[in-house]
Specification:
Number of strands: 14
Number of helices: 9
Strand order of the largest sheet: 11-12-13-14
Order of helices and strands: EHEEHHHHEEHHEEHEEEEEHEE
Structural class: alpha+beta
Radius of gyration: 19 Å
Length: 293
């Protein structure tokens, strides 16, 4: 096994954690574990190939992104914008069955919850944004153009030396925001953002098959409603053993944050929950930090 430690992919950083999972989605040969200690970082390993080189080789092209079912225009199967009618979603869902990237649709939208206007639900990781940042796939394509040259950008980001660019990214990373004391721009690491998008493959959006305005009737995997706080939280673990994407998928099904005495049975050494950014005034900003459990 070839193994590399990635200080730039910290488990306590939601986007870094999702990005680490995204490497296993890009290349199924890659396995992911985490170092021990107060600040676990990703350990990537693969048989017969350098994990970083494998990520670079599997990096998606612009044509790959255009062929994703979540794209605004895709193979004549209707048009997706921020507000998606259930009829349009059904057309796109039928057309994308069996497609390699069908998960891009189900990790952003779900017709298992439809609001009073007949619009399908968005996942919490697909929050609304200002202007042209409203569509998750559009955000991805903007980020993708910033990763150049790919090899150097990936190597630097994994080493914790990633170049930041002025952009909103996927729209939920707390670290993109500047100080509350000034009106600075948003800055993101495009490599982390793009890999985090691929990490969403393991987090589909679901619902209870109802119609209405209740937020509790739609949920994205990993998110849970907090009745006492009036919002939602996402909870995620760091584990010791190297797992591929299917092993991670199984672990997330079996593990839960409630019974900490059982964490060692799953190799889980630490876990975190999101802290939601509180917008100021009429600001429409979504961002999530973390709090260690």
């Amino acid at each position: 096994m070839n193994r590399v430690e990635c200080p730039g992919l910290q488990a306590s950083w939601l986007n870094g954690w999702l990005a680490a999972i995204g490497t296993t989605v890009l290349d199924p040969r890659i396995r992911l574990g985490w170092t021990s200690g107060r600040t676990p970082v990703a350990l990537l390993e693969a048989a017969g190939v350098d994990p970083v080189a494998a990520v670079v080789a599997a990096w998606p092209s612009q044509s790959t992104l255009k062929d994703m079912p979540l794209a605004e225009n895709w193979k004549g199967a209707g048009k997706l914008q921020r507000h998606v009618r259930v009829e349009d979603f059904a057309i796109r869902a039928r057309a994308s069955r069996g497609h390699e990237y069908s998960w891009t649709l189900s990790s952003a939208l779900s017709d298992l919850h439809v609001d009073d206007k007949g619009l399908v639900a968005h996942g919490t990781f697909d929050a609304a944004g200002p202007g042209s940042t409203k569509w998750l796939h559009h955000r991805l394509t903007k980020v993708h153009r910033q990763v150049e040259p790919v090899r150097r950008c990936v190597e630097d980001s994994f080493a914790g030396l990633g170049r930041r660019v002025k952009d909103n990214g996927l729209g939920f990373d707390w670290s993109r925001l500047g100080s509350l004391a000034d009106a600075s721009s948003k800055w993101i690491d495009p490599v982390i953002e793009e890999l985090a998008f691929f990490g969403l493959a393991l987090f589909p959006v679901r619902g209870s098959g109802t119609q209405g305005r209740s937020r509790s009737s739609r949920v994205q995997r990993g998110w849970e409603v907090e009745p006492d706080r009036g919002g939602e939280r996402f909870v995620w673990p760091a584990w010791e053993q190297p797992l591929d994407r299917f092993g991670i998928d199984a672990l997330l099904d079996a593990w839960g944050p409630e019974n900490r005495a059982r964490w060692p049975l799953y190799g889980v050494q630490a876990a975190w929950r999101t802290l939601a950014y509180k917008p100021r005034g009429d600001e429409r900003t979504t961002a999530f930090g973390s709090h260690r459990l």
